[in-house]
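Predict structure. Chain length: 283.
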Amino acid sequence: MDERYDQLVDYVKQGLARGYTEEAIRAVFAQSNYDPGVVDRVFLSARATNKVPHPTSHTGKYLAGMKMGTIAVVIAVVFLVRTTGALQQNLATSGTELQQPTTISSSASPQAQDHSASSGNASTTSSVAPTASSTVTPSTTPVPVATATPIGQKTITSSPSSSPAPGPSSSPSPSPSPPPPPPPVYAYRNGTYTANGNFNTPGGTETIGITLVISNDVITSTSATNGATNSTSIYYTNIFISNYKSLVVGKKLKGLSLSKVSSASLTPIGFNNAANAIRSQAS
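Prediction complete.
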């Protein structure tokens, strides 16, 4: 009996550890026709030997993570704003304006003219004379003003995220499926048991021997031995033995009790006494 009781305790502890509620497990016990008192004792034993952790709120964890993420974003934005302002100030103070260049265009290129001396001169001279004058015209194309950027610095631009922060999911979490049925617990051990039952008659106390084969609390086979000594008792006991089996085989041992069987009214008392002794043996 202790081993079967421990199986129920383990069943409750495993069900609670998997997230099943106590009400759901009790409902399965009720569907399996377990004694409520036994179920209460099983839950007390399960709690005494195993502390079931309370489920952590996933929503609380999610909100805490959102709070920390929001603080990190605010710090990053403040840092970027300050960095951008400092860069703009540095650029304003260190920027230089490039001077507007002028374009020099030449209308003609100088031409070298070689003049040959007369045949009477001993040496030949060459002279270069410009053929046209060079003029300077200002460019009419506007020159953009460039500002110098300090070496080693980068321009950082920050753009706030346009996507909203995700909120907690509104879909309910799926409830766990019903727990499986608990293992069956039987009141009696399987086996073959024999006991004698006494009953009183007008001729004195008589006895009947009863043998029962028990499997999962159900009587699967039976036999009886007539132990009466008085002729009248022997007669009625034989009547009982010829007719009692159909009232016993297939029935549960627990609570089984016979009254009058055919015309035998005292012999069933002996059977009931023998059945009580067998219950004690099989428990």
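Summary: The chain is about 35% helix and 15% strand.
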